[in-house]
Write a structure and sequence with these properties.
Oligomer: single chain
Number of domains: 1
Radius of gyration: 17 Å
Number of helices: 5
Order of helices and strands: HHHHH
Shape: globular
Strand content: under 5%
Length: 127
């Protein structure tokens, strides 16, 4: 059972790398690029919708949301693009995650703005 989980996780990681290359491909439609970029950013982001320290619910996004997003994104991308990106993903998996500090900073800024906005609205609600 543990081995099946490891294989599933490795396959999911490989698919995320495929999506990383696919959203950068010019042959992919705009809506597929946007959706795929969001899935990849969320999967690689250290910030989750539900924090992992919350028992059981904290892992729901990692176990359900990310795989569902990957599944839908893979269906949006043409097969020829996926085939090309598979080769690139195999090479990338040998080297590790791509690092893009600009995109990472934008993601963190977005989460900070959302948190401040939510905090201000909650404060107004109770005062």
């Amino acid at each position: 059972m543990l081995e099946k989980i490891k294989v599933w996780a490795r396959n999911l990681k490989r698919q995320l790398f495929v999506l990383y290359f696919a959203y950068r491909d010019k042959r992919v439609s705009l809506y597929a690029k946007v959706f795929t970029a969001c899935v990849v950013a969320y999967a690689f982001s250290p910030i989750d919708l539900i924090p992992d320290f919350i028992p059981i619910l904290g892992y729901v996004d990692d176990i359900i949301l990310v795989p569902l997003g990957v599944m839908f994104a893979l269906k949006m991308i043409p097969k020829a693009v996926l085939a090309d990106c598979e080769v690139k993903a195999q090479e990338m998996m040998k080297n590790g995650k791509p690092k893009n500090w600009i995109v990472g900073s934008i993601i963190v800024i977005i989460w900070v703005v959302i948190t401040i906005w939510a905090g201000m609205n909650i404060y107004r609600l109770f005062n």
